[in-house]
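User: Can you predict the 3D structure for this chain?
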Amino acid sequence: MLRLSISLLGFFIALTSTLPAADSAPLPDGLYAEFTTPRGVFTVELQYTRAPLTCASFVGRAEGTLAARPDGRPFFTGLRWYRVVPGFVIQSGDPTKTTGTEPDTDAGHPLPFPDEFAPGLRHDAAGILSMANGGPDTNSSEFFLTLAPVNRLNYLHAVFGRTVRGLDVLAQIQQGDDLAIAIVRVGSAAQAFKADAAAFATLSAAAKKFSAPASPGPAAAFDDPQNLLPPTPARARAFNFKLANVERATGVKIRARLFAKSPAAAEDAAPGQFMRALARQLGTEKSGAVLAYFADEKDWRLWLGDDSTTAFLGRSALPPDLADGAALHDAKDIYFAAAQAEADAMFARQQKSAPPDQQPPPAQYLKLQTDALLDALISKLAPR
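Assistant: Here is the predicted structure, written as structure tokens:
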């Protein structure tokens, strides 16, 4: 019996040693980018059917069919990871940069193109490949990969890939490490995907361009008239871009307003009176949402358009659901509590990591609350 047990053990060891490791098994049909670094190799699946413009730009720069160097080499030659923020992102794409502190140049950013926000593609995990930019429709060569979920970047940066192999390599990368990118095409559809100048130009021309007000204000998606948010970097401007991009990509209208003082008694005499009037003014009374903050009372309020209540209730709202203290009110309370907990946790982490003489100001806490509330609202209302 002992001999039999030893023989069986040897058989199973031999059998398992012949099975392919997960990272050496053939890739399924798809379009992939293989990143080779001094720390190891990782592979990203490119979402070329959902983000064809962004993928065409990336693949063309990697294969040499788009923005090739004067000597014929691919644009993505000689790259370095010039920005590494532990727990956040690693960034590259501009061959003229080595430290990340250099200014952007035309040579490092040829062929800019519009944002491409595909519903369902989010910064929801480590290993998400996304475009770096300087605002709406300023994409070019620079890209980054997340080192953790960073959903506050949704609808600010265009996601176009997800790491499927070698995820552990990303956290090991050091600033200044070099990298090489090889495109892997598996299957006929990926083989047929074009990433040349003609395909890029066609896709870029067809993309929906940013046309909303670029600055916060009464007519914009976001406004902070009393400058409650930190001014540097321009947080209100970024929130405005995000909400305008949500509407551009999905048609969902979300508006947000930060006020120093609560409404006058006459404007707020009945439950929902002020918020309904604000929603009517901003065009979200029937569909979409308005999020408002009143700093004097540290009070957040949410108005959901009649057609948007389903996202919170999971079903069509009935008249009894809309009463004070009824089902919709409870659903909103859950939404506010979850976002508040997320903001509290993030603020505590920032306080812990900051030096005693450089603690984050109260305005930063408001920024984190706004992040959490808007991201949760977008997640509920925007298509997946």
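The chain has a mean pLDDT of 93. The radius of gyration is 24 Å.
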